[in-house]
Amino acid sequence: MSSTTSLIKKVEEQFELPNAAQEFIKKSVQYVGIPMLGILVFLFLWSVAAKNIDTSLGKFPGPSVVMEQFGSLYEEHQASREKEEAFYERQEARNAKRMEADPDYVPKIRAYTGKETFLDQIFTSLITVMSGFLLAAIIAIPLGIAIGLNKTLNTAVNPIIQIFKPVSPLAWLPLVTMVVSALYTSSDPLVAKSFLNSMITVTLCCLWPMVINTSVGVASIDSDLVNVSRVLRLPAIKHVQKIVLPASIPMIFTGMRLSLGIAWMVLIAAEMLAQNPGLGKFVWDEFQNGSSDSLGRIMAAVIVIGFIGFLLDRAMLQIQRIVSWDKSSASR
């Protein structure tokens, strides 16, 4: 009996994986296997549904059609870059000939004005959303800290916040467009008016979540920490730097993540509505185009919009992990 037991133990030891390998397999299944399974199920359901949906432009695009459009969009981008290079080469050659004939000639280089490609519009939207988001953070975080520290200021400002918070950011777009057109009248503008319109609209939609979450985070600081600051007689700036900011970072970043997610959605809608350059305009142009490839291109843009939104949220979460003392607050 004892010999049988020992034999079983030897077999178990022979085939038993080390703890490190078991942990690796467990994490691989949890973080890679299960998400991949979910994606595969989604792609299968998408393919089945696409085959059974007929539109005025043909079949609804399935995964394979969308992948083809990604390749087509990239090829168009490459072709556009080649045209741009050829455009500047022709100007340089022409200017060189003019300077040979007339040494006093001042060469002029005209900017390339070709149509923005899909990749160009992705970068345009990213620059716009990050510009509006950073401007909102510069305004909202100090304001939220001040409101959280001062009950009187909170009482004064809170009604204004509660009135404007429910307003759709797109309702601001016509007003922003009119104000920018009236005030930004430079003959040689540094940035385009369309960029300012979209950026300010993004800023307005980012303000409220950041202000509210920052003020709540500051107001809910542990009283023991406040008492320590009073005992040490920290100046106001030191109190904010050493006590307020570290303790309220989780709430501040919650507001920033909410704001960035809302900003990305609002920007796409604003670009569609105002026909400002970016991914939203690309989607609207393809819808108006009505070609056989339009649905596939729109679906490709939808996937890119969602993927970029996911990456922006993960980037904010990673920054929170770096700057926050409470690492568990950034675990989701």
Automatic annotation (TrEMBL):
<keyword id="KW-1003">Cell membrane</keyword>
<keyword id="KW-1133">Transmembrane helix</keyword>
<protein>
    <submittedName>
        <fullName>ABC transporter permease</fullName>
    </submittedName>
</protein>
<feature type="transmembrane region" description="Helical">
    <location>
        <begin position="122"/>
        <end position="149"/>
    </location>
</feature>
<dbReference type="InterPro" id="IPR000515">
    <property type="entry name" value="MetI-like"/>
</dbReference>
<feature type="transmembrane region" description="Helical">
    <location>
        <begin position="243"/>
        <end position="274"/>
    </location>
</feature>
<keyword id="KW-0812">Transmembrane</keyword>
<comment type="similarity">
    <text>Belongs to the binding-protein-dependent transport system permease family.</text>
</comment>
<keyword id="KW-0813">Transport</keyword>
<dbReference type="Pfam" id="PF00528">
    <property type="entry name" value="BPD_transp_1"/>
</dbReference>
<feature type="transmembrane region" description="Helical">
    <location>
        <begin position="294"/>
        <end position="312"/>
    </location>
</feature>
<feature type="transmembrane region" description="Helical">
    <location>
        <begin position="199"/>
        <end position="222"/>
    </location>
</feature>
<dbReference type="InterPro" id="IPR035906">
    <property type="entry name" value="MetI-like_sf"/>
</dbReference>
<feature type="transmembrane region" description="Helical">
    <location>
        <begin position="170"/>
        <end position="187"/>
    </location>
</feature>
<feature type="transmembrane region" description="Helical">
    <location>
        <begin position="31"/>
        <end position="49"/>
    </location>
</feature>
<feature type="domain" description="ABC transmembrane type-1">
    <location>
        <begin position="122"/>
        <end position="316"/>
    </location>
</feature>
<keyword id="KW-0472">Membrane</keyword>
